[in-house]
Specification:
The protein is an all-alpha fold. The chain is built from 14 helices and no strands.
């Protein structure tokens, strides 16, 4: 008698499978660290070329760009989910929706440019911000970012993580290099915004070139229904648990992309606010101290930037594995390790040498918030963990995370405002808020895994009942249902 098919499904993944699991996030994490290192170099140069007020204004401009660019990041998630689902049977069908989406992004960029130029001065007056052109540049750069995200989403869905890592480096190096050149040449905050725009354009064109040279992988043979018979010859795939039901075809590519983008947008807007609104709030409540706080905020974004890079691996891999009926918990664990390690290291450095670090990178005139660096580093590490949890839940189709993050962002904003613009009080408020947010979103992940196990055991028993005695699934993770 051959081996028990259920135990065959428990076979350990091969060394090649483990290597493949680590190669993707490693390449993206290295690229993220390279870009972030160059970003720190840029801050070292720019902080010395600008006075404290101008540097604070530049940090506000970057924060506005990051908040507005969340629309592009939401679109990226929708593109990954749609492309990973394998919609379209012919090459013509597969490229038709991509061409239409690129065209829609072009129209959106044109409209955003007109609106930015028309509204930048009233918005700057409302914010008491002395650089209206910089606001327009941040808005235009965020609109261009949507086009870059479409191309990066296609690269992610096709598993070309090395090419995606190269694109990170190309876009980051061009953007950072131009910001340095324009600021040093005396163009100030407006020059930095121009560098952002050109860098994003170059990154989008390079990503489009990479997409044209990355074939779409064939659909996985593991996509079967719950009713599919279990193998009885002992030759089951080593990584294939009980498969999940294949979702019914969506009515159209356009409708599915719009729906997925709306859900992702609802989750990413609170995340963008959690990442960037502390600088904006401190600049509003304490304009004279925003430069020092912006310095520690920039330094503490390391785990978040690494998380944003690693999320480009976690989303398609988690989505693909669940679609094929394979466990995705290991993928999440690998992603968490890549973001927690640098965050804890940064917190340790901030605890023993924050002033030295800030003097080295930003100069002695931006060290007044040094005591709060380690606290904010822990806060941003927890935010990176929340980002990983959210990416994983979006890949699984769990929409409850949108409401959790929305409530968390509102509560965090209230806590940050109550801190009154003081650096240490703001960092402590952020740490408490991020701790509660990570806990709440983490509980959704635990609930998802409990549901997966329950549905997997039920499916195993149903399959066993059709062939003989019921079978108890001993695996920590069974097959996966759809979660809406």
């Amino acid at each position: 008698m051959g081996p028990d098919p259920m135990w065959s499904l428990m076979a350990k993944p091969s060394r090649e499978a483990v290597t493949g699991l680590l190669a993707g996030p490693a390449a993206l994490a290295i690229a993220g660290m390279l870009v972030n290192g160059c970003n720190l170099l840029m801050n070292l140069i720019v902080a010395r070329a600008l006075d404290s007020d101008s540097y604070g204004a530049l940090s506000v401009q970057v924060s506005i760009f990051l908040i507005l660019s969340v629309a592009g990041n939401a679109l990226l998630i929708a593109v990954v989910q749609h492309e990973t689902s394998g919609s379209g049977d012919s090459r013509r069908e597969r490229w038709y929706w991509i061409r239409r989406l690129r065209g829609a992004c072009g129209v959106g960029i044109g409209l955003a440019t007109v609106a930015a130029l028309a509204l930048c001065r009233p918005v700057a007056a409302l914010m008491s911000y002395p650089h209206p052109v910089a606001i327009a540049e941040a808005t235009i750069g965020a609109a261009l970012w949507t086009l870059l995200c479409v191309e990066r989403g296609l690269i992610q869905a096709r598993g070309a993580y090395q090419r995606l890592a190269v694109n990170f480096v190309v876009e980051g190096f061009v953007r950072i290099g131009l910001v340095i050149i324009f600021v040093v040449c005396g163009m100030g905050v407006n020059g930095a915004g121009l560098g952002i725009i050109i860098g994003v354009i170059v990154g989008a064109e390079h990503a489009r070139w990479a997409v044209s040279r990355t074939p779409r992988p064939p659909r996985a043979a593991a996509q079967r229904r719950w009713s599919a018979p279990l193998p009885t010859d002992g030759a089951a795939p080593a990584t294939g648990p009980i498969p999940m039901p294949i979702p019914a075809p969506r009515p159209s590519a356009r409708q599915s992309v719009i729906a997925d983008t709306a859900v992702a947008f609802g989750a990413l807007v609170p995340l963008a606010l959690l990442q960037n609104m502390d600088v904006v709030i401190v600049g509003w409540l304490n304009p004279t101290g925003v430069g020092g706080y912006a310095a520690i905020s920039t330094a503490c974004k390391v785990p978040v930037f690494v998380g944003l890079a690693v999320a480009n691996f976690l989303l398609p891999e988690a989505t693909r594995r669940r679609t094929e009926g394979r466990p995705a918990g290991g993928t999440l664990a690998v992603a968490l390790a890549f973001v927690v390690a640098p965050g804890l290291l940064l917190a340790l450095v901030g605890l023993v040498g924050a002033k030295w670090l800030l003097e080295t990178v930003f100069g002695p005139h931006l060290t007044e918030a040094a005591p709060a660096l380690w606290v904010l580093a822990l806060s941003m590490t927890l935010l990176a963990v929340t980002l990983m949890f959210t990416t994983y839940l979006l890949g699984a189709g769990v929409r409850r995370v949108v409401w959790v993050l929305t409530v968390a962002s509102v509560a965090t904003a209230v806590a940050l405002v109550s801190a009154g613009g003081d650096a240490m009080a703001t960092a402590v408020a952020a740490l408490v808020a991020e701790s509660l947010t990570a806990l709440a979103v983490g509980l959704l992940v635990v609930r998802l895994h409990h549901s997966d196990r329950r549905e997997g055991v039920m499916a195993a028993r149903a399959a066993g009942g059709a062939r003989g005695p019921a079978v108890t699934d001993p695996r920590p993770e069974g097959g996966f249902p759809a979660h809406v």
